[in-house]
């Protein structure tokens, strides 16, 4: 019986070869997209799975409830009090900085080593990397202790058994206490060396408001995170508020409202990469991931729709076969099983082809997402095969039941070809297919418009021809290093101007603090700078004046602010110049001398935040944060100028260190990469969807028009022109397309409006994508169907009318 079913299946595959190819193609494309996105999702979910303590480690995120914003930072005293006051919290670790680099000197070699971390001393209690040499006990107890990875050990010593060896950098001799091997699994916490943030921890021990650290808590295995979060508020945040509220002249509750944290969120370590609200090491994009996964499933649905449509359209060709089989005793269940088997064979063949295509596309996919995914996860095969079975069941069961319900007597009389059974089913499924196609066209056009809007937006500054060079050697007085280099590098041929700014476009190396005026507080970004930095970046002055090197007060407490700063305090421009405010990072009042036009140095997804700018000598600590020098390069011979700058830097400034530089405009352009990739993906998916849908439409229209060839022959005999016949044959499909687009418009509007809500600078919902979707789908439908309709007008009249 099975052998007979397979023979019948392959006879029908051959007979309807176009439909078979279209089904294979659509399902292969859909399954390939599904597997690639599924591997991408699984890869994002796999971070920190290697850690044996992951189930008890939670990342801390503070919550600003009023603005519903999250931050990954905490202060040292808050974390320390939490572990003392909350029994469920067993331990904590702080992360001060990551991505550090030093020129390290050993007795045999000098080399630059990057990707280091400074942490609190119990780091290895949380991240127990495989120990190769030394001991984790007291590994980070002292100021000059260092633990290194096997890669760093080989780079510096040529071997891994180097516990007890000495490394000189940052002005001190460090002793290697442990050598570890980094995990093979995905991890964002993979330092090549780890040192104790000794001086910073020492200085911040009583700094309740110095939110300078990322934090992980080790919780008891039975701890309820909701309970712990409540205790963090009651026993830690409120405690700090009570200590400081009296001095601020407010109640503890008001203090929390003004200065926070007002709440917290604890997220398991292995969920932070994709599901975290704010992560010290950078969060993934769950929303985009869900969109991509949904779109890949929609493509599979389109492929299944093709299958259902084509199977039901072929009904008349199988009617007599079914009638004969029923007449000789075959029951409905056997017929359903036979048609399900035919569907499964096609789906399984598509699955095999999809596996091969996925393997071929995977290198390009990895390059696009900057990943190293390999097809070695059994879950990919399991879930994709489960999807194949589901598709086979759904897309096979509907036409199987439909075909199995044919009446033997009616089909054996040959009346089925003229019946209207199945028309509503086919039209309904075709409408759904075109609704999905219309949505993809609309979505693709709106995404492209939004990305173009962001790319074309006036940022309020110009980073063109501005090159930033980052300091690496952690000079003890970096501001003096900058001042020396500023004068020397101006002399390099091709350098037009030199300046320094802490808040650099496309970077996040600047700080946030409360700004207090009377009973009102706002939070603002603050960036130290040289006198000329804002003019250097072509920022526009709205009112007042720039900082002046001739005025001593401009290095004491005079600042410039942006328009948003003034608006958030509720001042007009004149009031801003009369009022003084106190920033949370200093004890003295600051005076506004200039207001600059708003300009965006972050991603255009976010609104311009309040910002203040002041000279780096205005505070006792900001001068130690001077970390770059910026050079405006003349347009003539830019390549030659860059080479001269690099040569000077490596010879005279930081020999032995890598030359870390970038152009500001290119650095800011990186903030668009995510959205440009979304645009590319939507375009690719849109092309795939249209291809699958139009091929299905062509095959379906071919089958349906073939069923009308006798009608065409009769009408042509009666004098109908070719144009009249083509319009008559395509009219039904054009009406279906029109209805589908009309249905898709409100759905697309709602979904794309939700997507646009993520952008502070968004386009107004345009009309043209909806109009263009309608026009393009009508044209494509007419073009696809009219090809077969035109062929139908050339029928052999004798062939179809000789028995009439």
UniProtKB/TrEMBL annotation:
InterPro entries: ABC3_permease_C, MacB_PCD, Macrolide_Exporter_MacB. The chain crosses the membrane at residues 21-41, 289-310, 335-360, 380-403, 424-447, 681-705, 733-752, 767-790. It is found in: Cell membrane. Residues 20-232, 432-647 form the MacB-like periplasmic core domain. Keywords: Cell membrane, Membrane, Transmembrane, Transmembrane helix. This is ABC transporter permease. Residues 294-405, 685-796 form the ABC3 transporter permease C-terminal domain. It comes from Chryseobacterium kimseyorum. It is a multi-pass membrane protein. It holds the Pfam family FtsX.
